[in-house]
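Data card: per-record layout.
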Amino acid sequence: MIIPGKYLLFLGDVADRLDAKTACGLLDWAPERCAGQWRLPSCGVDLGLEDMDFEQALAAGARTLVIGVTPFGGAIADSWIAPITAALDAGLNVASGMHRRLGTVPEIAAAAERSGASLFDVRVPGRSFPVGTGRKRTGRRMLMVGTDCAVGKKYTALAIARALTESGGKATFRATGQTGILIAGEGVPIDAIVSDFVAGAAESLSPDNDADHWDVIEGQGSLFHPAYAGVALGLLHGSQPDAIILCHAAGRTHVDGYPDFPLPELAECIEANLELARRTNPAVRCAGISVNTSALPVEERAAYLQAIGDRFGLPCFDPVATGADALVAHVAATFD
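The structure for this 336-residue chain is written out next.
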């Protein structure tokens, strides 16, 4: 799936940046492809890009309107249909990471037919997958796991893959969600795979490779999430990670959107992931801890990371604020 041109990021009417994580991820990791933003009047998020109408976006080089928000359940809101239709009539393609296919919305399908523009459903698998085999594969794999959703698993994987390659190592970022796929240009929308085939899809995503090559795999969900534990477990088993990286958001106390479910302690989360990962790779280790410290005062962040690193004897880093060089150095010293 090759999505053409620069992107106009559609923010709809979301209230906060957590709901706009696709747009945020594209702006952070593929800024050269982001021409501008489009928002409904009630939108509470501003990415700092120029607000453009569809004609202005086309003039600025945009060719595709990307749905940059990730609402609960992956639905296309009724309030989005008219602007998406208008974008298609103006000549923009539309790309979406929603679970609902764009073409199943009659107005959107009709507009695409009228204009000749293309619809890209990033969250729809482009192929079928076998069931998992559990067969050991050559090469090395590193999987991001989390205390919750939206804690920085994608950012962590991208930062690690970049740091590994910049240090002269062999590494590939393996995308498992719609934003990662838009950034990398390929991947598997793992939460759209039928549950029996999630482990097999993860095996296909990270096939046999050179002995010293790292597949750095974007995580999904959390084993402790009341709704999304299943996808996390299938990905854990199919990835057969040699290393896991625990990802956490500082200051978060409960599962996002589930106030009755407190987050697990870091040690509990590490051990649960290791115990279940050993089903397909008995040699798995936790190699580090990644923390999104953006909710903390700037002057407190370094001490916070240091305290966690000292407690676990592992590199603890913020993929945005500090980068992943310390993690890469630790991996080079401890994995032979």
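Known properties of this structure: The CA atoms of residues 37 and 51 lie 5 Å apart. The radius of gyration is 20 Å.

See the next section for split statistics.
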